[in-house]
Design brief:
Elements (H helix, E strand, L loop, with lengths): L1 H34 L13 E4 L5 E4 L8 E5 L4 E8 L2 E5 L5 E5 L3 E3 L21 E12 L3 E13 L4 E20 L4 E20 L6 E14 L2 E17 L2 E14 L5 E15 L1
Antiparallel strand pairs: 1-4, 1-7, 2-3, 4-5, 5-6, 8-9, 8-15, 9-10, 10-11, 11-12, 12-13, 13-14, 14-15
């Protein structure tokens, strides 16, 4: 009996030692794993918040300004997650489906909000309230027959985002050789050589305002002075402003001028003008 016990005792001790070694080997990787970073761990975004501190009636509006509608009134101490910032206004999340704007004087920041500042697209510019001066040169076709050089200038004002009012003054020297012209009852041989001055007041409809390339439609009325006579003139056309700088652009334009000439025995004139100029905003 004693002999069998003595034989089993070393076997039991060997099994215990082997089991302890296995436990130590399995525990070692866990220790190393806890000390190394987890490569597949999820990225947690830090929410930036503000806390209301303006009393018990903190007004939240639908937009960044006092002219916007009130969407809610909240008491002091409530915290909101900030979505964006524009000037002194914070765009906050009121619920899962609603947002609002609150003034910075009514709340306290917990974090730096500079990276949430709203910045408009640098390619878009508001030109409301700006004056535009455009000297130009081009070609003028009097009565769709003679071609002459035209010089002029335009001064405009951006009244609205899509609307510009503009006044213009132009000059050209019309030269046309003698040709047979049909009047009401007979034929006449006419030769034309005279200076012409014309001015107009137009409204320009801007198709894509605020961008680098701004097409527009124009229409207006004015007068044409030639050979001692002043004729009421209507004009319409289209053009494009290509901005090479926020305050400077190249301008290309085509206009049609229509008036009834008393000098030519009541004949209706249709004249064309194509011009190229440079626009300067100030």
């Amino acid at each position: 009996m004693k002999r069998s016990v003595l034989i089993c005792l070393p076997i039991v001790m060997a099994l215990v030692l082997v089991g302890g070694a296995r436990a130590e080997n399995t525990a070692a990787p866990d220790k190393n794993a806890s000390s190394s970073p987890q490569l597949n761990a999820p990225h947690v975004l830090t929410e930036k918040k503000v806390r209301l501190n303006g009393g018990d009636n903190n007004v939240v509006r639908s937009g960044p300004g006092n002219s916007f509608a009130i969407v809610g009134v909240y008491s002091k101490g409530i915290e909101f997650v900030v979505i964006a910032k524009r000037g002194e206004w914070y765009n906050v999340r009121l619920s899962d489906t609603n947002t609002g704007w609150i003034h910075s004087s009514l709340c306290k920041e917990f974090d730096d909000m500079s990276d949430l500042e709203f910045r408009p697209n640098p390619r878009l510019f508001s030109r409301i309230g700006s004056f535009a001066f455009t000297p130009y040169v081009g070609g003028y076709a009097f009565d769709r027959k003679s071609n002459s050089l035209v010089l002029g200038g335009r001064l405009g004002y951006h009244l609205l985002e899509y609307v510009e009012v503009e006044g213009s003054v132009s000059w050209t020297h019309v030269v046309r050789p003698a040709e047979i012209v049909e009047s009401l009852f007979n034929l006449a041989l006419e030769e034309e050589d005279f200076h012409m001055l014309f001015y107009a007041l137009n409204g320009n409809l801007l198709v894509l305002p605020g961008r680098q390339m701004v097409p527009f439609l124009t229409f207006g009325t004015g007068s044409t002075i030639m050979q001692g006579q002043t004729e009421t003139t209507f004009n319409y056309g289209a053009g494009i402003n290509f901005f090479v700088h926020q305050m400077a652009a190249f301008r290309f334009e085509f206009r049609t001028f229509r008036f009834t000439s008393e000098v030519s025995a009541g004949r209706e004139n249709t004249n064309f003008e194509f011009s190229v100029g440079s626009t300067f905003l100030f």
